[in-house]
Design brief:
Length: about 160
């Protein structure tokens, strides 16, 4: 897996960060690899992301990571596949008292497995776990998202 950014992935990162929907989360994508199989995100604790207790708002944690795996799968599987968010859950483990970080990774084996399972079953639901950690590596939240993948109907 290539970890460096390309011009295309850098422009995608800028577009993502400037999108009003994503900007509302308070998060920033800090890196998208050229092969779109590695994404890094940071969620700073600011007035916009702070809850009344002075810690990271759970809604910001959840919305910051929502849809990232879906986009990564869409870009890596190709135009013949349809990906939809099916379900997401979040576990709050520790209060986020500073900037939180998340990393999203798709291996070539995972992409091949998704293609093989869709070819065999027609459609699948795939779960991905996202850890939100502070600067010291302390796990503050864990989101599990389920992405539904199937082939696009022929037109």
């Amino acid at each position: 897996m290539g970890t460096t950014e390309s011009l295309k992935s850098r422009l995608m990162r800028y577009a993502f960060n400037l999108s009003p929907v994503f900007r509302a989360t308070g998060a920033w994508i800090t890196h998208i690899s050229a092969d779109l199989r590695l994404v890094k995100l940071k969620l700073p604790l600011t007035l916009k992301t702070k809850n009344p207790m002075g810690t990271m708002c759970g809604g910001n944690m959840y919305s910051a990571v929502h849809g990232i795996y879906l986009v990564m799968l869409l870009k890596n599987l190709g135009p013949n596949y349809l990906c939809l968010d099916r379900l997401s859950t979040i576990k709050f483990l520790k209060p986020g008292r500073g900037t939180l970080f998340a990393q999203f990774e798709l291996t070539r084996d995972e992409i091949d497995a998704v293609k093989a399972l869709v070819a065999e079953h027609g459609r699948i639901d795939r779960q991905y776990r996202i850890e939100l950690k502070d600067a010291n590596g302390v796990l503050c939240g864990e989101v599990t998202c389920t992405v539904h993948v199937r082939l696009k109907p022929e037109q």
